[in-house]
Amino acid sequence: MKILVVEDDRETAAYLAKGLDESGYTVDCANDGREGLFLASSTEYNAIILDRMLPSMDGLAVVGALRAAEIRTPALILSALGSVDDRVKGLRAGGDDYLVKPFAFSELLARVEALLRRGTGPATETRLRVADLELDLLTRTVRRHGKSIEVLPREFRLLEYLMRNAGHVITRTMLLEHVWDYHFDPQTNVIDVHVSRLRQKIDKGFDRPLLHTVRGAGYCLRAAES
Amino acid sequence: MAGEKPPLLAPSLTLPRSQGKEGWGWPAPQLVRSLRRLVRTHAFRLAALYFLVFALSVLGILLLVYWTSANFVERQTEATLDAEITGLAEQYAQRGLSGLIQIVAARSAGESGGAAVYLVTDPEGKPLVGNIAAWPGGVPIRNGWLSFGLERNIGGHLETRPALGRLLAIRGGYRLLVGRDISDAATFRSQVRSALLWGGLIVLCVGLLGGTVMSRNMLRRVEQVNRTSERVITGNLSDRVPVQGTGDEFDQLAANLNRMLEQIERLMTAMREVTDDVAHDLKTPLSRLRARLERALAEPAADPSQNEAIRAAIDEADRLLATFNALLSIAELESGTLRDQTERLDLSEITRSAAELYEPVAEERGFALTIATEPGVQIRGDRHLLSQAIANLIDNALKYAGGGEIAVRAFRRDGRAVLEVADHGPGIPQADREAVFDRFFRLERSRTTPGNGLGLSLVRAIVRRHDGTVVLEDNAPGLRARLEFTAV
User: Fold this and answer.
1) Domains and CATH numbers, chain B
2) ipTM higher than the 0.85 cut
3) What is the tens place of the pLDDT at every residue in B63-100?
4) Does residue A144 sit in the same domain as residue A45?
5) pLDDT, average across residues B133-158
6) Is A34 part of a structural domain of the chain?
7) B388 contact residues in A (CB cutoff 8 A)
8) How far is A186 from chain B (nearest CA, A)?
């Protein structure tokens, strides 16, 4: 898996490269927009991480140019600007995800992995399955080990998102963005309580827990110790 | 036929009537409204004042002209009569009564049926000579003057005309009367009167028309300034007041306003740039700081307490960042423009969704979160920002109320969309209810609670961006935060 990092701050770039390398990715770095555009259009990458404010050509322009050239490599935009307005602009320019600086590396990694998964799984599935947990998208029902579990509509969507990303770390912010469509940071641990309620429903009474908390990162729904 | 099929006839009868009603009905309120609007304007009042002064001076001039010209003919008649009677008195003094009679007879002869009247009577009042048969029964207007009706043969029939007479008492009881028909003077007077009346009417009409045109002209230019200001207020900072190039006061006003607007726009742009620069230049080192801490955490630690210290440092950095982000958001909301992103939103749905996000955490902390929303409370705005404002209010209630009920409501009232978050906590003293909206303001008792003192500032910035209002009220006991927006 090859990832291009376009970032003018060398220390941040090195930190990203090191972290991604440790996670098993091959990383190329570009220090400005033009170089980034050149690399992105001449080499095949699985994902691009690029800073929004770059010398010579800004991040949005790079993404715009790539999309205009029909290069659809998933792009994660990093920015110091965090308002809803900036986020919308970033996504409208062709970015696939938007992350506000500074960020926890685990957050970045979770998002990059989500981008890499995008479009690979069959989207037309009507039934999701993780171990003995089953979710039927048509009948909107949840069963574990053949036993029906009552969930609220919001819990259903939460579980659906976690199951679609089974085996991967999902951060609180990602849940807030994808399940609730909120792009701000609530000061209270609202997500934790929603997740622990869901956990009560799907894990209580079963000897093997499926929904795990990943310390300092978020949550992960996975079948067994893998 | 009408009697046989009334149901068929009824609609054909009511239809034209309702059409007629509409035909007359709609322009009248519109006219009244625009008239009322005109009357309220300063330009109209100014024009009306000028018109009043103008009308009063015209009236004064007309009265003066009338008084001088209408009396002119009368005074001329009086002078003639005076001269004649003086002449006759002299004749009498020189030639005695018989001489006077001779002269009067001669003058009467030349004036048969004419406008001049002569009469001499003896002590018994019997006429001796003259062109009228008897002493007229008129009204003495002042000493030696008599106003009377004169019967004259005009074109074959008799007419009574107004006349003025001068009399002279002669020694021995004889009396002399010299008179003149003054109907010409009366005609002249009425002609002057009608001429002045028409003239005055024309002048008033011209004045009224001129005043209206003037006030409408003035109004139009003031209106331009008003419309531009409104557009600027609603976010179009680059709009300018049109300058007509006449160099008059309105042009000067427009030029000054435009200079002011340019300055404001420059300041706003500068503020945005500063905000962006600060965001970039402070966040980059913060990013490095956080990254280094994270990396340090990944290294094997010599001492387990070291990792705890690093985690605490990361938490502190995150708090710093949250404060920083909130400040930037407020600055951006206060300086930026949001208009182009507004859409029609269901405030009830947004409220319900934000409240539901908090429902489990509220329950866990011993609160009863109740949600009551009316359907169809529509406003224009940004969904993300409004959700954040509602979330901040609920967050505050959770932080400070301690327990009990938190009631979240969304409803319509008098054309306004209202959102309320009410708790049963300690509330906020009346004196601090404005200050809590200020950045970094925290109540003394809440210093120990985590928070940055920016939550309500952000709420207010969001609400203002939506042209709404936010007030804090006593919920007896507790606090009720109420947001109001224009419903659409």
Assistant:
1) 27-233 (no CATH), 249-335 (1.10.287), 340-486 (3.30.565.10)
2) no
3) 888 888 877 888 888 898 889 889 988 888 888 888 88
4) no
5) 80
6) yes
7) 182, 184
8) 7
More confident residue, B98 or B40: B98
Strand, coil or helix: A23: coil
Using the 3D structure, point to which of A71, A96, A117 is the last residue of a domain.
A117
User: Measured between CB atoms, does B280 come within 8 Å of chain A?
Assistant: yes
pLDDT mean over B132-159: 80
E strand or H helix that includes residue B343? strand B343-346
Q: What is the pTM of this model?
A: 0.63
Among B273, B275, B280, pick the best mutation site for testing chain A contact (most A Cβ within 10 A): B280
Q: Cβ of A160: how many Cβ atoms within 10 Å?
A: 18
Contact A85 B455 (CB under 8 A): no
3-state secondary structure A72-111: CCCEEEEECCCCHHHHHHHHHCCCCEEEECCCCHHHHHHH
Quote the percentage of chain B above a pLDDT of 90. Answer: 18
Of the residues A96, A117, A138, the one at which a domain ends: A117
Extract the tokens encoding B235: 């976010």
Residue type present at position B65: V
Residue from B192, B193, B215, B211 nearest B203 by CA? B211
Determine the pLDDT at residue B359: 92
Per residue in A31-65, pLDDT (tens digit) is 989 999 999 989 899 999 999 888 888 889 999 99
Residues of A in contact with B395 (CB under 8 A): 186-188
Using the structure block, give the residue that is written with the tokens 């004064």. B60
* A184 interaction partners in chain B (CB closer than 8 Å): 384, 387-388, 391
Edge-to-edge strand ranges of the sheet holding A47-51 = A26-30, A2-6, A47-51, A75-79, A97-100
Inside any domain, residue A171: yes
| CB contact burial B172-207 (16+ within 10 A = b; e otherwise) | eebbbbbbbbbbebeebbeebeeebeeebeebeeeb
Report yes or no: B314 and B294 within 8 Å, Cβ to Cβ. Answer: yes
- Tens digits of residue pLDDT in A166-185: 888 899 989 998 898 888 87
Secondary-structure percent of chain A, ordered helix, strand, coil, rounded to 5: 40, 20, 40
Q: Does A6 share its domain with A102? A: yes
CA distance B14 to chain A (A): 54
Measure A68 CA to nearest chain B CA, in Å: 24
How many domains does chain A divide into? 2
The residue that leads in pLDDT, B115 or A115, is A115
Question: Do both A43 and A80 map to the same domain?
Answer: yes
**Structure-token pair, residue A25:** 């990715």
H-type alpha helices, B336-369: 347-364
Mean pLDDT of chain B: 82
Give yes or no: residues A162 and A112 share one domain. Answer: no
Residue A87 sits in a domain whose CATH number is 3.40.50.2300
Interface of B with A in 432-451 (CB under 8 A): 450-451
In a domain, A48, yes or no: yes
B6 pLDDT band, cuts 50/70/90, is very low
Q: pLDDT under 50 in chain A at which residues?
A: 226
Range of the domain at A211: 127-221
Distance from CA of A154 to the nearest CA of B (A): 9
User: Which of B284, B307, B342, B385 is the best mutation test for A, with the most CBs of A within 10 A?
Assistant: B284
Residue A77 burial by Cβ neighbours in a 10 Å radius (0-12, 13-18, 19+): buried
Pairwise CA distance, residues B403 & B423, whole Å: 8
- Tokens found for residue B47: 């024009």
